[in-house]
Design brief:
Layout: H1 10-20, E1 26-33, E2 38-44, E3 47-48, E4 52-57, E5 62-67, E6 79-80, H2 96-113, H3 116-161, H4 170-191, H5 202-213, E7 215-219, H6 223-235, E8 242-244, E9 259-262, H7 269-288, E10 294-299, H8 301-311, H9 315-318, E11 321-324
Parallel strand pairs: 1-4, 7-10, 7-11, 8-9, 9-10
Antiparallel strand pairs: 1-2, 3-6, 4-5
Length: about 325
């Protein structure tokens, strides 16, 4: 149901919810749509990450999210999608009328300030500069081509003038080959420059985030790529001895292990539910104690979408750095 404005506080939200009479497990939602409008729907509530806002995708009939980049008013913590009234900025839309009027006013003022002939002069000067630039590029290319032709001719004359009737000995031939290889290596080495920005390297970023938060979660369908990144974390030498465990319910704290990696955290949901609360609390304490224990987990996109609401109830998952990868 499209409407003029969504409820702005809890009392208005409750009133609208009673009017729409949603039935469990669905809840009342009033969300911004992908075309900038607002709509009321009965939908299943989902967790929304901080600095993100929910948006109703009318094409598929589901809730999407979009980033909130404003400095004030954006969500600062994880929240349910049916509590978006706490962040009115998420349903705010730009005033198209104001934008249009301002643009028209600026264009009108500009036309009054600069007569028409001024624009012709500017365009003419720009065209002349463009022509000169093209001519300069053509001259430069011709000179460069002539220089290359001249060097090739000199090299050809030198080769013809060099006596080649005397064959090289095996020792001389080996020495010449080694010398040429050394020259090639030096040229190649001079072209290799180190990456001075550590955040541009995914491996360095993974290590830094794991050191900071103690828990790193990869969400991707690329098992091989995630396996390589887990191996690089192990090989960094920053987290001590490591061990792969699957699933989560099999985890037990070991004295000589400080890094645990889970490639399949949830195998059987029924067995996980039996030990869920105590296991999650124990892992959270391990990730915050000193010395710290580190955890790296991998979920497929389907698994994360299926279990994220239950998992995000626990501080262990709330504190984690979550990395969505293609």
């Amino acid at each position: 149901m499209n409407l003029h404005q969504c409820p702005q506080n809890k009392s208005e939200w409750d009133t609208a919810s009673q009017r729409l009479q949603c039935v469990d497990p669905n809840s009342y939602h009033c969300l911004r749509t992908e075309d900038g409008g607002e709509t009321e729907q009965c939908l299943g509530k989902v967790w929304i990450q901080e600095k993100m806002c929910p948006e109703y995708n009318s094409k598929v009939g589901k809730i999407d999210v979009f980033s909130c980049h404003l400095s004030v008013g954006c969500p600062t913590e994880i929240y349910w999608s049916n509590e978006v009234y706490k962040y009115p900025i998420c349903n705010r839309k730009p005033s198209l009328a104001t934008t249009t009027i301002s643009s028209s006013t600026r264009n009108h003022d500009a036309n009054e300030q600069f007569p028409t002939y001024v624009y012709y002069i500017i365009i003419s000067v720009a065209l002349v500069l463009l022509i000169l630039l093209c001519v300069g590029i053509c001259i430069y290319r011709n000179r460069k081509k002539r220089g290359q032709t001249s060097r090739e001719s000199e090299n050809s004359n030198f080769e013809r003038s060099t006596p080649d009737s005397v064959p090289l000995t095996a020792h001389e031939h080996q020495h010449s080959s080694n010398h040429q290889t050394a020259i090639k290596l030096k040229k190649t080495d001079s072209l290799v420059k180190p990456d001075c920005n550590p955040r541009s390297n995914p491996h360095i970023s993974d290590v830094e985030d794991l050191e900071k938060n103690g828990v790193l979660i990869f969400i991707s369908d690329d098992k091989m790529g995630i396996g390589k990144r887990m191996n690089l974390i192990e090989e960094s030498g920053k987290f001590g001895d490591s061990r792969y465990i699957s699933p989560l319910v099999q985890w037990e704290q070991e004295d000589d292990v400080s890094l645990y990696l889970f490639r399949q955290p949830i195998d059987d949901m029924s067995s996980f539910l039996e030990e869920e609360p105590s296991k999650m609390n124990e892992m959270f304490r391990a990730s915050t104690n000193v010395p710290k224990t580190y955890f790296v987990l991998y979920f497929s996109k389907y698994q994360w979408q299926k279990y994220q609401i239950r998992l995000l109830k626990y501080d262990f998952f709330k504190k984690a750095t979550t990395r969505f990868l293609a």
